From TrEMBL:
Record-level Gene Ontology MF annotations: FAD binding; monooxygenase activity
UniProt keywords, alphabetically: Monooxygenase, Oxidoreductase
Name of the molecule in the record: 2-polyprenyl-6-methoxyphenol hydroxylase-like FAD-dependent oxidoreductase
InterPro entries, per database record: FAD-bd, FAD-dep_Monooxygenase_BioMet, FAD/NAD-bd_sf
The keyword Oxidoreductase belongs to this UniProt entry's keyword annotation: yes
Every FAD-binding domain range: 2-172, 294-358
Keyword hit for Transcription: no
Pfam family, one: FAD_binding_3
Length: 426
């Protein structure tokens, strides 16, 4: 049996393990964290990612945890409606879009990996220190952080799914340097409150030319109680911020740093200052990515998820792209004549497509339309038709077609990435 070592137990790495197991390939996942905990805030899973997780047998669990997003709506900083579009099944997809707690999703994946592959399939507290490869074998150097014991683990394939600061990528691209910051700082938090608008709306207000707020509910448990667990992201352009390099998803932020930018943002449907103040914990993060690279695969080693294509959090893409990577990697390894051919097939199918999303997110085409609104109607508007032409409004839809949407018919009708053709595990 082929054996794959996966570095990183995030969404991409754990989905890789489940996909490999489903394809009849042995997987071992290692992660440097001493214990995996449900950290983070909200994430959106687009229909193409929901399809893949459903085919891994997790559709019911996703429906129990996440909120099926009904619509995405853009507003100006005064709460005036600019543009809106339905999401998920309302667009014709067979699968919904889910807004879900990133940590809960990761724990679901972790528990499923351990249940299907065994408790030893995920080793925490294990630091990846480097690799060597010779012919058909990759040898990874691992360090047990608790005991200080070093070991070498051999595998047929090594997958770097270890995120933005990937140690695997650093060995492949040793001169790459730090992530690239675009001058926007993000504060993120979770606040329980009353449902707003449809109760399942993903709302975007303002423009990150100055300040922007993204808010959406992420908990079906809260919805069943008549409440909403609201995930919020506050984006503020702060050029010259000396902390720009501190790209740590779990870095603590301060209310006093973010609140002044939104102190008078009160809409008929949402009190933004109260939303910010109601969070038990605030996280702070720079909006960073890396330049796309021309190859992910070197012999028996490849990259996946944020290690392969870190991108701005525009259009709900990061986690969804990682899920696609995982499923296609496993499919290609299972159906190719050799592991090396499988890895190249994975790269050929995913690299250009994922790199295009990175560049589309960096281009921020929807933001150009939002900035036009702010420039032309700095004090708000009565009707958006007085501010933007139909063609300019259509630019927002076009932006999401470039970054987020998969062709509905193509997704609904294409064959499965499960090699057996079955829709879910037994």
């Amino acid at each position: 049996m082929m054996r794959v070592l996966v570095v990183g137990a995030g969404i991409g790495g754990l989905t890789t393990a489940l996909s490999l197991h489903r394809a009849g390939i042995e997987a071992l996942v290692v992660d440097a964290a001493a214990r995996l905990r449900p950290l983070g805030v909200g994430i959106n899973l687009l229909p193409h990612a929901v399809r893949e997780l459903t085919e891994l047998g997790l559709g019911g669990e996703l429906a129990e945890l996440g909120v099926p997003t009904a619509e995405m709506v853009h507003f100006d900083r005064y709460g005036g409606r600019i543009w809106g579009d339905p999401r998920g099944r309302a667009l014709g997809y067979t699968w919904p879009q889910y807004s879900i707690h990133r940590g809960e999703l990761q724990m679901l994946l972790l528990d499923t990996v351990r249940a299907r592959l065994g408790e030893g399939a995920v080793r925490t507290g294990t630091l990846f220190e480097g690799f060597e490869q010779d012919g058909d074998t990759v040898r990874a150097r691992l360090l047990d952080r608790a005991s200080g014991t070093a070991e070498t683990v051999s595998a047929d394939v090594l997958v770097g799914a270890d995120g933005l600061h990937s140690a695997v990528r650093a060995q492949l691209y040793p001169d790459e340097g730090a992530p690239l910051w675009n001058g926007i700082r993000m504060w993120r938090g979770l606040t329980e409150g009353e449902p707003f608008l449809t109760g399942r709306t993903l709302a975007v207000a303002g423009s990150n030319a100055a300040a922007k707020m993204v808010v959406y509910p992420i908990s079906m448990r809260a919805e069943r109680r008549g409440r909403a667990l609201l995930n919020w992201v506050a984006e503020v352009r702060v050029p010259g911020d000396p902390r720009s390099g501190a790209a740590d998803w779990n870095r603590a932020g301060r209310l006093e740093d973010v609140l002044p930018h939104f102190a008078d943002w009160r809409f008929g449907w949402l009190d933004v200052p109260a939303l910010l103040a109601g969070a038990e914990r605030i996280l702070e993060y720079p909006m960073v990515d890396r330049d796309p690279v021309g190859r992910w695969t070197f012999g028996r080693v490849t990259l996946l998820g944020d290690a392969a294509h870190p991108m701005y959090p525009i259009g709900s893409n990061g986690g969804s792209q990682a899920v696609l990577d995982a499923r296609i990697l496993a499919y290609r390894l299972a159906t190719a004549a050799t592991p090396a051919e499988g890895l190249l097939g994975y790269e050929q199918e995913r690299l250009e497509a994922a790199n295009a999303v990175v560049l589309a997110c960096r281009d921020m085409p929807a933001e150009r339309v939002l900035r036009l609104v702010a420039e032309r109607a700095p004090h708000g508007f009565a009707a958006i038709e007085d501010v933007l032409s139909p063609e300019e409004l259509a630019g927002i839809t076009g932006a999401y077609l470039r970054t987020s949407f998969t062709d509905v018919e193509a997704l609904n009708t294409r064959s499965s990435y499960t090699p057996t053709g079955e829709a879910s595990p037994a």
